[in-house]
Amino acid sequence: MKKIFDTIDSGTLEGLSIILANTDNRFGLTGTELSKFIPEAGLNDVEPTITKWKRLFNSFVDYQNRTKNSNSILKFINLTMRPSRYVGNSEKFEYIRGELNKRLSFIGLYLNESGVFNPTEKSQTISEAKQRVNRFKSKLEQRNIHPKIFEYCNSELISENYFHSVFEAVKSIAEEIRKKTNLTLDGGELVDNAFSINAPLIKINSLETETHKSEQKGFGNLIKGVFGMFRNTTAHSPKIIWNITEDEALDIMSTISLIHKKLDKNCR
Hints:
- There is one protein chain.
- This protein has helices spanning 10-20, 31-40, 52-67, 71-80, 90-104, 126-132, 135-142, 147-158, 162-181, 187-194, 210-236, 246-264, and strands spanning 109-111, 117-119.
- The radius of gyration is 25 Å and the shape is elongated.
- By secondary structure, it is mainly α.
- A hairpin with a 5-residue loop joins strand 1 and strand 2 (117-119).
């Protein structure tokens, strides 16, 4: 017997419609695609000439009012989120899937990588929904990012705030250096004292050869470069001016992770 799914509340329906029919066609269905998939899913295209997301939302509402279930709405999501439709554009698939799952978590559903629904425990809060399906944090975990980054900026990662995630992650470097050295300095002065060649408080190698000494100096310069490029910039520029994309944030976090891993290998 075919399972009958309960109706979906209007707020969640609206959110799903806005994501699926995003006005930016790079991330949402086109008008032509709506014309194809709305009837294919068993929905009525009640107002085909209005704004895309409202067009889809009205089709969803019309269906639920007539049938008292959400089966064809979920079928529409299945049809439009077939992985085969996104071959060569996996970033778009993962973006839409992640955004959909934030809303679907409130009705106890999760759209997996195969484009199939799995039952899940219902989210009760926005932060809980974000935490379950956070793309940025998941991508960091796939890169084996150092755990200190998650420790210092977990709330920023959950909200996918790239600007402040980078800011907090860079600050974590200085804080860990202070912890290891008992210094109270900051910035370049902190780095110069911690990684001095003659009296180092932190050594990333034995410093026995010129190559080792060059590596030590280079590591200190890398940290100062990260401070200058990312911490100082984010501290003095508003988010709207200093914009960071997800790819850029991932690369920055990988660099910060490398620094933390080197700090863990402090040679005494």
